[in-house]
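Forum: Protein Structure Q&A
Topic: Joint prediction for protein chains with partners

I've read a bunch of threads here and the consensus seems to be that you should model interacting components together rather than docking separate models afterwards. I'd like to see that in practice. Below is the full input, 628 residues plus whatever partners are listed. Could one of the regulars post the assembled result?
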Amino acid sequence: MTETLRPPPSGSALITTQFLTKQYGNGVVALADLSIAVQPGIVGLVGANGAGKSTLIKILLGLLPPTRGTVTVLGLDPAAQPQEVRARVGYMPENDCLPPDLSAAEFVTHMARMSGLPKTAARERASEALRHVGLYEERYRQIGGYSTGMKQRVKLAQALVHDPDLLLLDEPTNGLDPAGRDAMLGLIGRIGTEFGISVVVCSHLLGEIERICDSLIAIDGGRLLRADRIENMTEARDILLVEVAEGTPELRDRLRAIGLTVTEEGRGLVVPLQTDQTYDQILGAVAELDLPLHSLEQRRHRVAELFAASAASTHAHPGEAAHV
Amino acid sequence: MSSPTTASSVIHDIGYRRYTGPRLGRGYATRSLYVHGLRTAFGLGRSAAAKFFPWGIFGLLVAVAAILVAVQSQVSVLQQRVFEYWQFPTQINVLVLLYCAVAAPELVSRDLRGGVLPLYFSRPLTRLDYPLAKWAALVSAVFLLLLGPELVLFLGTAFSNQSMSAVWDEFGLFGEGLVVSALTAVLFASLALLVSSLAGNRAVAAALTVGLFILTTPVLGVLQGIAHAGYGPDGGMTADGERLSQLSFLVSPFTIVQGIGAWLFGGQGQSFIGPYGPLYLVVTLAVVAASLLLLLLRYRKVAR
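Posted by a regular:
Agreed with the consensus. Here's the joint model:
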């Protein structure tokens, strides 16, 4: 069975679902009437743990049949043509999935052959994929000795090795330190732009993936909260949480006086991180008032907070595919 | 379709290139997995430590065969046979078990523990292809493990023979050995792979495999004890006792193959299983089929 590479038909959607519902045998509804139409590019799929992200990925890969509704991936139905879909899709699971006793080069070569690449091509593409993820020098070392960051790169390389038209990445920054996260996100950004491969990135951290995504899909409890192009979601910003041991009202008034939006939350104050100067402005105000600063930390918006407002309206028209 | 490199990328970065070569399908992937499994079963492409055990057992078996050939060449003037090809696999079947107990976990437990299965199942391979490829790999590996010493027996004996017709006769006997080797391989590999697929820890899987085989021995002992308990009026075994004795060898994978060998190739004197030869063969095939079915069922569920 030999087939030549076909790029996804231009203009057509990368992924579409209509009234997609998945109910497990134990009665748990993982997805409920999800209707989306995703255009090529880098797509963020955000939702809390248990929101249905992994179930959606498994349905897209043809590993789980939907209970109701239709789904297409690259114009194919994964339930009817799972092999055709999987040959053109790369998948990076959330959990550990690497054998510790093989070298990265051997393992990625093996996975390339499992995707149908002939022997020589598999070896060449494995070297290239590992080079693209930044593991060229270390590729003959056993994976067991790798750091978490290097293992995540191997996982990405095996998903990339057969040159898929679509990458499904499940929590690719899991377990990485801030520098590792930035590097991984940069890499995913390059794959989406320079390599020309469409990417769906799952994450429970919206603030993290919004930087590289063209569009975002937020789901919660198996339902679509919101799906939109990233530029329509500019309110999705980081926030600063300030806590002072005393003098919270004075600080609030001072910050408002210099033009910041301040809301009180518990014992602290929440300020949206608007520019690079916000930090200095807050520190300056604390110093001027001579208040004992307890903590000043940057926090991500939680998905639930951000999308709660739009949830009601989306639920009203579940059948209307949200185009992103 | 390469894209320009960025300034931050390393010097030898020639950009991403799309793959335009052939994409072979599921059959190719399954065959590749089979070859990979066969290599793994002999530690090929792995560390020296992983090669030690399979090649140690192989060496031991070849050495035993070489010794048998040497002894045979000394006594051949007496026209006596020191060994029978079909008996050889049953004489060293404990070593075959030990090999299975190490190789089967290497093939399946490792992937379970490492969580590698989702990577396979997100590719064109199906949940049937994976266990079938692994099963075929282990059956082939055990057969090759037995083929080596059988070949040593055959070549060693054949070359010390004088006439071509004697070599031809020897070849027929060698064929008997291969039949019993194949039966041993299919039965032992099926059971070992099924048991190992239940445990992610390789040591546990090995212990379970050995346990399953070894535990049948006392059961056989008890059945034999019962069969020999009562004696008939003529001082021999009772008819019931004899029947029980002849059937009792069904319970152990070791003796069931021995029974089939004796039935097919043993001649009149050696058949300790009475008229039940066909039953032994049917039971063996049923056990293999059931193991394979359970293995496939196991992989329908695992790593969902």
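DSSP finds ten helices and 15 strands in chain A.
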